[in-house]
Design a protein that fits this description.
With about 425 residues, the protein is an alpha/beta fold. It has two domains: about 230 residues, 3-Layer(aba) Sandwich (Aspartate Aminotransferase, domain 2), CATH 3.40.640; about 140 residues, Aspartate Aminotransferase, domain 1, CATH 3.90.1150.10. The chain has a seven-stranded mixed sheet, with helices on both faces. The longest helix is centred in the C-terminal third of the chain and has 21 residues. The chain is globular, with a radius of gyration of 22 Å. Bound molecules: pyridoxal-5'-phosphate. The site of pyridoxal-5'-phosphate has 15 residues, from α4. Pyridoxal-5'-phosphate binds next to α4.
Amino acid sequence: MPLHRNTLTVAAGYDAAEHHGAIKPPLYATSTFAYQSAQHAKDVHDRYFRTAPAKDKADPAYIYARLDHPNMAMLQARLAQLDGAEDAAVFNCGMATINAVTQAFLRPNDSVLHTKPIYGGTDGLLYSHLTQFGITPFAITDALDADAIRSAAQAACAHGRLGLVMVETPANPTSGIADIALISGIAAEIGARQRHKPLVMVDNTFLGPFQQNPLAHGADLCMTSLTKYAGGHSDLLAGGVSGAAGPIHTLKQLRTLLGSHLDAHTSWMVLRSLETMHLRTERAGQNARAIAEFLRTHPAVASVNYVGFVEPGSRANTVFSRQCRGAGSTFTFKIHAGEAAAFRMLDRLRVLHMAVSLGGTETLICHPATTTHFNVPAARRLDVGIDENSLRISVGIEHVGDLIDDLRQALDAI
Ligand SMILES: *Cc1c(COP(=O)(O)O)cnc(C)c1O
């Protein structure tokens, strides 16, 4: 009988019998691993470099911590199970993960299809860095509409081989939904036509494995910034990607060259944090719904962009119900009165903290136009709905009454 995710998250990837019976994972603070003999050294290298290393429990055969180490292996095994994947690779942050995916699967002059808006770091990678290799990004205008996806794909294919499809759903900060199964189906059609299947990578950071499983809907790779809800305490940076053994093996081999592995201590911290992720995301989700509902009724608030408010009967709602088991706890809302009023309100907050990032136990709020999107030209910022009235909140696990009281006193003063 397959175990539930809530059970897997406590134990998957770790067997006490392999570690002197320690009920919790020891921290392997070592850079290198001793060989048992010269022949063993040769065998271990053969296994690492020539075959996808099927882990031999009796001899896990570690070589050097940049290649692989026990704490990283435990985390990868647990993440793979939570994402419903054959394997996973972890990296020292979410952007290192996305960088590895683009370097592994894109070639010069390829095109990339992506949903819009996409995370700022990914946007920068696609529009400011990869362009120098002739790689050209193409945005999908409506990620719920087959015609819109096909026409963007057609433009991409007219430019060059379509190498990668990058999907982010729900999107930050618009809360837009992308249909993963529809996009994956169209990617498969293109694959048959151009004789190269473009991999579909979904950035699952906003919902995470307990609320959304992109691989079950046809995506090839599920990427997560583990810095956010998985780490969950705003005290580390990490990233991961799950999928079939083949592409994950490719990514692990490349990671060795890039030097972007996750260190032992951080791997150990993320493994531990995963044990409570379902509880934290559940409570944060409940708090977020209550706060979104409060904000919707406050006269100083113009609109609330919360995924849970997706319009009943809409296509977005159909896809949301099929794909997601929760609405997450990060969303954007707008006030009526402009930047000065937004700043006054922010400066009055006593319980909420003003900072970028999301997914921690504490509630964070920021003014995207002057922080997360400071460097994005105004036209592109407005195109994704961020103006001087926009505020982004990442709801934590505090008592929701304290959060609402704090927001109320600050909004009342506008
Ligand atoms: C934060 C974030 C990333 C990047 O992750 P880092 O760990 O900060 O490198 C990627 N995608 C999304 C949606 C994010 O929120």
